[in-house]
Amino acid sequence: MSTRPYRSVLYIPGSKERALEKARTLPADAIIFDLEDAVAPDAKIEARATLKAELDKGGYGNRAKIVRINGFDTAWGKDDVAAFVGADIDAVLMPKVDSPAQLDELASLIPDVDLWAMMETPLGMLNAAQIAAHPRLKGFVMGTNDLAKELNTRFRADRLPMMGGLHLCLLAAKAHGVVIVDGVYNAFKDDEGLKAECDQGRDMGMDGKTLIHPAQLEIANTAFAPSDTEIDLARRQIAAFEEAEASGQGVAVVDGKIVENLHVVTAKGLLAKAHAIAKMAG
To answer: How far, in whole angstroms, is CA 13 from its chain's centroid?
Structure first.
């Protein structure tokens, strides 16, 4: 899996020029330029042209540029794809992916661009493994608002009612080396709640979180980055294991805990992620 960070993935409406301009300066690892939910039906065509013009200007730096199109069951979906063939983007995000067949259709319309899938329906959860295995698929975005609607769940801070679906997608993503970013936290002024949900997602194994407001960036960036304590431990684990190997031992001990090769692999991955984050920051 790529070490490119996706700690913070910020939705920006494709119809709002000022927001598109501001996004060039925000500390987001990735931007989802949204042509779907964030754009009213009568503004869809104009938003497509506005977004294309802004992307042509460039200036988004190292941020991953992901365009969320409208579904192919709408009047706009396929024209959205056609508008961004050859554009300076990193991925196209398809909403409400239920099966790999939808990705096949998208792949046939746009070459040489990674495909991402919104995972937000019960059928999508059940087919997550097949979707993640698609050869062009590189990322999952959890659509927890739509999933909650489809499941008819009540809101709970622990998100227990949708954990089954989240875990199915996590297992599929990890099995196939696919990036997976958590759903949005709607109360953008509730820093404590956002931090708790970011920490939960990170503990589960999510790579980052989708965000609806720039004020959420700092919390997500911190939550999904290796801490100084984790970096220090990783370095000591690697050093201790290398010393143990040099003396003919297969395991080492750090802070009273066994360190085996699998821990070293994890430690090296953590340091690579920390390096990639530092590189993003310039």
So the answer is: 17
Report the residue count for the chain.
282
Cα–Cα dist 86/89, whole Å: 8
Nearest alpha carbon to residue 92 among 120, 75, 76, 112: 112
Q: Could you give the CA distance from residue 200 to residue 77 in angstroms, rounded to a whole number?
A: 34
Predicted TM-score (pTM) above 0.90 = yes
Tell me the DSSP string of the chain: ------SEEEEEETT-HHHHHHGGGS--SEEEEESSTTS-GGGHHHHHHHHHHHHHH---TTSEEEEEPPPTTSSSHHHHHHHTTTSS-SEEEESS--SHHHHHHHHHHS-SSEEEEEE-SHHHHHTHHHHHT-TTEEEEEE-HHHHHHHHTPPP-TT-GGGHHHHHHHHHHHHHHT-EEEE---S-TT-HHHHHHHHHHHHHHT-SEEEESSGGGHHHHHHHTSPPHHHHHHHHHHHHHHHHHHHTT-S-EEETTEEE-HHHHHHHHHHHHHHHHHHHHT-
How far the first Cα of the chain sits from its last, in Å, is: 22
DSSP bridge partners of 116:
93, 139
Task: Put residue 96 in one of left, alpha, beta given phi > 0 → left and psi -120 to 50 → alpha.
Answer: left
Instruction: Specify the higher pLDDT residue, 3 or 107.
Output: 107
Segment 33-61, tens digit of pLDDT: 999 999 999 999 999 999 999 999 999 99
In the predicted model, is pLDDT for residue 32 greater than 60?
yes
| Residue 90 CB contacts under 8 Å (≥ 6 apart), including other chains | 30, 64, 65, 66, 113, 114
Helix axes 191-204, 163-176, angle to 10 degrees: 50
pLDDT of residue 3: 74
